[in-house]
Amino acid sequence: MTLLPFAASPTQAAPDDVCAALTAPVHLRTDPGTGSQLLTTDRAAADAAQLRDDSVAFLASTNARARLERVYHLRSANGRDAYSADRAEVAAWRELGYRQLDDGFFASPSAADCLLPVYELVRESDRQQALAITEGQRDEYLADGYAPRGVAFYAGVDRQFSLAIIPDSQQEVLDDHGLWNQRATWLAEQEGALDLRYITHVGDVVNWDTDDHIQYERTKAGVATLDATGIPWSFSIGNHDTMATTVGGSARPGESAHTNQRITKTFNRYYGVQHAKNLQGTWEADKIDNSYSTFAAGGVDWLVLNMELWPREGAIQWAKGIVASHPDHNVIVVNHSFLEGNGSVKQSNGGYGDTSPQHVLDELISEFDNIAFVFSGHTGYTVQRALTGVHGNTIHAINTTLHARNDSPTRIVQIDTAGKTFSSEVSGVASGCTYERSLFTGLLELQP
Fold it and tell me: Starting at the edge strand that comes first in sequence, how are the strands of the sheet with 37-40 ordered?
């Protein structure tokens, strides 16, 4: 049986009451082996499936309403899922051996300014279906051999979400008071309230390594907590996370700091590729030092680029290729050292790096109009600077360092893709305070 080509009927724009009815988050879970997608408004059922957590795909309704159509959920004998609001296509799926399930949701067959089209694609080799909203999602499926079949239905989208940026936490792990893990628990608890879509760290997670890796061990429970949330996360590497530093935090005597800063075996053991759920690629095999991950939020595509400290030229050229090949993604660069405490771009390589932040700005960051943010730490307190790229675009560089010993400060970046704005502030999880001079706002130039 051949599936019918399908596209939603071109009707008049949906009225406001339809837009207001689509408020239920539809959680997306994906089987990385087969590509099968589970879409459900039941968060508990989504988590129980133990599939890759791809967050909230779009907004729908759990109730039948005028001008909404039911999106049917079908499943094959081998557990693959398909969705359709078109009765003829539902019949075609059933002829292929799929059975109709009792769940599902309701969406609009018609376009509206407040809605986004949900596109259907089918992989020709095995008839595996995929639904996608953003350009980046569609491009990835097309590259994987899926064929487009048009708009399946129209759904709502939550245009507001947040990111969490963890500053230098090296002082938090010097003893067993649990501040690092307390932050992780707080982020897990605040996932829904903040609509938290990504977590990253600017580097210097620990202060130095020892044979028993005790400082890394003190973060282990928190890492497990972050893993359990399903929120994608990735950490950048600071100088204290490498073998460049010895006990006490200074350079290892008689050894090359330039060579040792690229020895990151322990960091990768505790925070490596096995934890990066949305990881798309690395410069060096099985090393998180230079890596990128993607996610969709606010109806647009995002790419998080974590780079090594004072990076090698090869890493910069690799990063340029990644950004150039993702023109529809809004890029977030996370690098331990970029801004100085006074807001200027650091000019040196720290004395033992390969290139300077100014070089990274000139060769990479300023060259692309889709780089939205640069987050860094390493020095100073907290500062923001708006940089201008060669295309006239604005790049928001934000330094958050703090080096708190008795608190677990966390920067929350709230993004509104409808208004194309962001606001950001640092809160102390342990202290409950808001850090002075940490409130930053700005306008975003989003892709596409």
Answer: 37-40, 24-30, 52-60, 146-156, 115-123, 128-132
